[in-house]
Amino acid sequence: MKFSSWLGAFALVPAISVPASAAVPAFECRACTPAQEQGMALAKPGQGLRFVYDFASHSIRKFDVVYHTGGGNKAIREALEMPVDADVQRLFALYDALHTRSPVLVEQGQIRVDVASLGVTEGSSGVRFFDLARVAWHASTGQEYQRFMGRLSAMLASPPDTRMLSGELADLLHGINLGFKSTYVEGGTGGATVGVSLEKGATITMEVCDGDGICSVVHINTTADNALTYEKTIDTRSDNVLPSQQMSFPHAWNFYDRNDAREFGERIARSTGGHFSMGILSCTEVVLTCARQGSTTFIGCRVDCM
Question: Which positions carry the signal peptide feature in this UniProt record (predicted)?
Fold first, then answer.
């Protein structure tokens, strides 16, 4: 069956067109045949321009989906292929190359960077790298958190500084994404439209990690000038989330390695000004319990067998 009559005939409905000011959508079709790519263009609702791309074949195609009135006052949709705009083809080549270098960033919107790439901050005894346990504890109003988020936001606003975090991230945020948002696409209802809207990449999850496996997780909203949202700070060895000053105490975490529990508890006590205790334990599976010390803001922690 030809794709011009794909989905069959159906009752005539009001046309849903893409406004001239709206970005043209681009959809991924994984390892598709040419016929499947055309089917993908038709499978998306409405009419108007859309792009379909495939990283497996390193290709992008442009379609204009239109309605035709057939016999019996029925409507038939058809996907007409058009030449891909030169700037869109160039930008897709960059996007495709980035996918080859960093598929996790492109496909899943995830990236991990070293906390040292943020540079140093002021400490009580001189400059130091950001303490991610303190970032967690101070969320979302404390000094360490505010400095951390402010530094990240400033770096993401500057292409050279973003490149200090990650060259791939800089290429995506300041090259590919901006290029797609501002490129002209011929063939819109007004003769041309501005921008291509990628199916992926509206949010990027960044993990900022230290050498001990502690990672602060933030989300970058690429549709809102790379605005940041903090989610949590996690110990990747145990998958336990470090506490914030907003958390209810007492609180307990389970560990299957008592050394991991000791390091986790020491971090909390050090960040909050509290104490840490751990006896000589013969067990491996342990529970770390932390509680406020009296009416103070200090948090004390101890490790016991499960």
Answer: 1-22
pLDDT, tens only, 195-210: 999 988 899 999 999 9
277's tokens: 């205790």
Give the DSSP letter of residue 117. G
Average pLDDT over residues 143-148: 96
In terms of phi and psi (left: phi > 0; alpha: psi -120 to 50; beta: otherwise), the region of 302 is beta
Rounded CA separation 81/64 (Å):
6
- Computed over every residue of the chain, the mean pLDDT equals 89
Give me the count of residues in the chain: 306
Give pTM, 2 decimals. 0.85
Burial class (CB in 10 A: 0-12, 13-18, 19+), 261: buried
CA–CA separation, 175 and 179 (whole Å): 6
What pLDDT is recorded for position 13?
Answer: 35
Q: Map 236-283 to HEC letters.
A: CCCCEECCCCCCCCCEEEEECCHHHHHHHHHHHHHHHCCCEEECCCCC
pLDDT-derived band at 303, boundaries 50, 70, 90: very high
Task: Tell me the backbone φ, ψ of residue 8, rounded to 5 degrees.
Answer: 75, -175
Residue 247 to residue 65: CA distance in whole angstroms: 52
Question: Can you tell me the distance from the alpha carbon of 136 to that of 243, in angstroms, rounded to the nearest whole number?
Answer: 6
For the chain, how many helices (H) and strands (E)?
A: 9, 19
